[in-house]
Every structure is written in structure tokens, then in C-alpha cells.
């Protein structure tokens, strides 16, 4: 008789295969897999429950979905106000050619992502990238992928950039400044930023043919500054909220901030236009497909977590290298890269932190050394695939709305070089600075 774990793993693998083969049906595939998990649990197949229907609401990351809804509303009005066109014109005057436009957009998204959520970063920066590509009459696929990948990369640079960073800070007792200097040594911020800088020559190689000169003689007039104010306002509020201790705020704090700012934007526009047409336009323009895909993936990840797959992977990694510190460290980093390419890194990191703490205590070494390796591998690993991180899903979703279908191989061309460069850099940096 097949066990629940075997069935869950088989369906999980099948889901990814179908997502590769049916890129336009990814949301349907993910939701269908989640539904099958629930049905199998209801009828008792496999013995242990995979995904009880009562657990579905808690499996969904409502914080991410609320952030998506609120930010998408703001972004729609932001685009309609013509502000992305103004920013695009400024960048075009600053960059000598298409290659450097792509590099600047990538670095721009990375800097923002070090301080606010990766998904919010993509939703804010991608419209500028789209506006630039429309002005230059070129495909936006490469630029948007670079924006998404860079936002994932730099999310690990500070305590406030990513959920995994917050989890690491909790386990290691770190504050915001400790990401820069910790126990008298250079912190993980420098490992991430060094990796980010080294992606510049990678982009110069990948896009070396994009030497078409760019100029901008246009002067777009912004029609409404309120969406820009709410855009910047919700960024500031997200940064402020990140300094509030986790135990003093609800888990959906960021989502509430984005949703409230989105609602305020809608209210302002309705009052200004004396019409609800803009509101309905925003709702129609929203990327529902991306939100449904994320909802399905959240439930599927909860299912494989319930049957112990995440625990098994974490234990396997720890045991495989427990006899040698360098081997253990290498397995933690590269095993995390591989796992995070396909599995959401939040439950994985949550599981690995206490395990690595115990392993470090057994080996009598500094646990922070392994924690940093875990964050380097788990945070950057999602950059390999278009569905390995929520920010990638959001970026691919925006491209789909523009009529560009991103295949796995399209993403691999950029995601793999970025990931290898950033991970190898961080891997070596942490080993050299923090090795026991």
C-alpha cells in the first residue's frame, strides 16, 4: 500500500512536470494538485493526512496575497498616472545603451528589495522596466526576469528584506545592525552585496549584444501624483513596520499596509474622478492568475510539509555532513539551493534552523556559521526557476499580461548564471570570514 508521503511526493513531482509542459495552465495545475491532496485526505488514502480541509486557510500566506492585491491596485493607478514613463525617460538619459539600462534596472530593484518585500519590489519596479522596453520597442522578458532575480538576491542583505532574514535574526538573536557587523566580523550583508556586484559582469556577458544606443527626448507629463505618493508611502510604512518586534504585530502587518494604501488610492481616485470606472479598471487589470498560482503552491507546500518531506530533507542534509565541517557547510548551502529551487524556502528554513543549531552544538562550532550558509543557499536558490519564489511568479505574471509567455528555459538562461554567481560568492565569503 502506498503511503501518504509517497503519494504526496509523486503528485508534487507530477505538478512540476505539468507546469513545465503547460506554462499557461500553471495556476490550474497547482490548484488541482492542492485539491487532490484535500480529497485524498478526506477519503483516507495513504493513512496519514496530507492536507486536511480545515488546514487550507492557514496554509495560504494571506500576507503575501494581501500585499499583491494592495500593491497591484496602487501599481495600476501608478502606471495610469504616467510616472513610470517619467522614470523610464530619466534612466534612458542616464544609460548609454540597452545593456546598461538592464543593469541599472536590476541594481535599482535590488537596492529597494534590501528594505522591503521582494514581491512588492517587483510590482513597483517592473512597470518602469515595461515602460522602458515599450519606448525602445524591445522585448521586456530579460529585463523583468533580471528585476525579479535581483529582488530575490538582495532580500537577504538586511533583516527587513525577506521573511527568511527575520527568521534567521530570531534564531541567532540578531538586530538590524548585526547584518552588517556581527561579533566583530563582517555580516551577511557584505556576502549578498558582493554577489550582487558580481552579477554585473554576468549581465554584461549575457546581454553583450544589446549595445543599441538609447536616448529620450520625450517629456511625459504626470497626470496625478497621488499614486506615486501612496507608492512611496507604503514603502516607508513597510520599512517602519519591519523594526517593530514580531511578537508585537500581526503576521499580516505588511499585507494590511499594502491593502490600506491600495484602498486609500482607490478612494482618492473615485473622489477625484467622481466615478468608479478607475476602480473597476484596477480590478480587471489585477493578475488573478498569479494569485491563484500562489494559493495553490502554498497549499501544496503545506501538504508535503505535513507528511514530513521537509523534515526528511533537512535531516538528510545535516546527517550527510556531520562528520566534517566543510562538507556539512557545503551540503547546507548547495542542498538548500537545490531544494529552494522547487520548494518555498520559508517552511524549509523554519525547519532547518533548529536542526542546524543542534548540529552546531554537537560539533561545538558557532551556529551562526551554518545559519548564514543556510540563508545564502535557501534565499538565492529560488532564482533558478520561474516558480521558485513569489517575486519570480509575480514578474512572470506581469509579462504574461503583456503577452509574453516565459518558459522555464527562458528563465534558466538568466536565473542559473545569477544564482551560481551570487551563491558561490556568498558561499566563499561566509566560509572565509566565519569558518570555525
TrEMBL record:
- InterPro entries, alphabetized: Arsenical_pump_ArsB (IPR000802), Cit_transptr-like_dom (IPR004680), Diverse_Ion_Transporter (IPR051475)
Q: Which residues form the signal peptide?
A: none
Q: Which domain of life is it from?
A: Bacteria
What is the first-listed, main subcellular location in coarse terms?
Answer: membrane
- Keywords in alphabetical order: Cell membrane, Membrane, Transmembrane, Transmembrane helix, Transport
Residue ranges crossing the lipid bilayer per the database entry: 6-22, 29-47, 59-78, 90-108, 186-205, 225-245, 252-271, 291-314, 326-349, 369-399, 411-434
Q: Name one GO cellular component term.
A: plasma membrane
Indicate how the chain sits in the lipid bilayer.
Multi-pass membrane protein
In which compartments does the protein localize? Cell membrane
Q: Which GO terms describe its molecular function?
A: arsenite transmembrane transporter activity
Q: Where is the Citrate transporter-like domain?
A: 16-377
Spell out the family assignment given in the record's similarity comment.
Belongs to the CitM (TC 2.A.11) transporter family.
Its protein name is Na+/H+ antiporter NhaD
Q: Which organism is it from?
A: Butyrivibrio fibrisolvens DSM 3071
Amino acid at each position: 500500500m502506498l503511503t501518504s508521503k509517497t503519494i504526496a511526493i509523486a503528485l508534487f513531482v507530477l505538478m512540476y512536470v505539468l507546469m513545465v509542459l503547460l506554462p499557461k495552465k500553471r495556476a490550474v495545475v497547482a490548484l488541482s494538485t492542492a485539491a487532490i491532496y484535500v480529497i485524498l485526505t478526506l477519503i483516507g488514502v495513504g493513512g496519514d493526512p496530507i492536507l486536511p480541509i480545515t488546514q487550507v486557510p492557514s496554509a495560504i500566506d494571506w500576507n503575501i496575497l494581501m500585499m499583491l492585491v494592495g500593491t497591484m491596485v496602487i501599481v495600476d493607478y501608478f502606471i495610469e498616472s504616467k510616472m513610470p514613463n517619467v522614470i523610464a525617460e530619466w534612466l534612458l538619459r542616464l544609460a548609454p545603451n540597452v545593456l546598461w539600462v538592464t543593469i541599472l534596472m536590476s541594481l535599482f530593484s535590488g537596492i529597494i528589495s534590501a528594505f522591503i518585500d521582494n514581491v512588492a519590489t517587483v510590482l513597483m519596479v517592473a512597470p518602469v522596466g515595461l515602460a522602458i522596453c515599450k519606448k525602445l520597442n524591445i522585448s521586456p522578458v530579460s529585463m523583468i526576469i533580471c528585476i525579479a532575480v535581483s529582488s530575490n538576491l538582495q532580500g537577504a542583505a538586511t533583516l527587513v528584506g525577506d521573511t527568511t532574514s527575520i527568521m534567521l535574526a530570531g534564531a541567532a538573536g540578531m538586530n538590524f545592525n548585526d547584518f552588517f557587523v556581527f561579533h566583530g566580523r563582517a555580516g551577511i550583508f557584505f556576502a549578498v552585496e558582493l554577489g550582487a556586484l558580481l552579477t554585473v559582469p554576468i549581465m554584461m556577458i549575457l546581454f553583450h549584444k544589446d549595445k543599441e544606443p538609447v536616448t529620450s527626448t520625450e517629456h511625459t507629463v504626470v497626470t496625478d501624483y497621488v499614486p506615486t505618493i501612496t507608492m512611496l508611502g507604503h514603502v516607508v510604512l513597510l520599512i517602519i513596520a519591519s523594526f517593530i518586534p514580531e511578537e508585537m504585530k500581526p503576521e499580516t502587518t505588511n499585507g494590511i499596509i499594502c491593502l490600506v494604501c491600495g484602498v486609500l488610492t482607490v478612494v482618492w481616485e473615485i473622489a477625484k474622478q467622481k466615478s468608479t470606472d478607475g476602480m473597476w479598471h484596477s480590478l480587471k487589470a489585477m493578475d488573478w492568475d498569479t494569485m491563484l498560482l500562489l494559493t495553490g503552491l502554498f497549499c501544496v507546500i503545506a501538504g508535503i510539509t505535513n507528511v514530513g518531506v521537509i523534515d526528511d530533507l533537512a535531516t538528510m542534509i545535516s546527517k550527510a555532513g556531520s562528520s566534517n565541517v566543510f562538507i556539512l557547510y557545503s551540503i547546507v548551502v548547495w542542498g538548500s539551493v537545490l531544494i529552494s529551487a522547487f520548494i518555498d524556502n520559508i517552511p524549509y528554513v523554519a525547519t532547518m534552523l533548529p536542526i542546524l543549531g543542534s548540529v552546531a552544538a554537537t560539533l561545538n562550532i558557532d551556529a551562526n556559521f551554518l545559519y548564514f550558509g543556510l540563508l545564502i543557499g535557501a534565499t538565492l536558490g529560488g532564482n533558478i526557476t520561474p516558480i521558485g519564489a513569489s517575486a519570480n511568479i509575480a514578474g512572470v505574471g506581469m509579462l504574461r499580461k503583456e503577452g509574453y509567455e516565459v518558459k522555464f528555459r527562458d528563465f534558466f538562461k538568466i536565473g542559473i548564471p545569477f544564482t551560481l554567481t551570487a551563491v558561490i560568492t556568498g558561499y566563499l565569503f561566509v566560509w572565509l570570514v566565519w569558518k570555525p
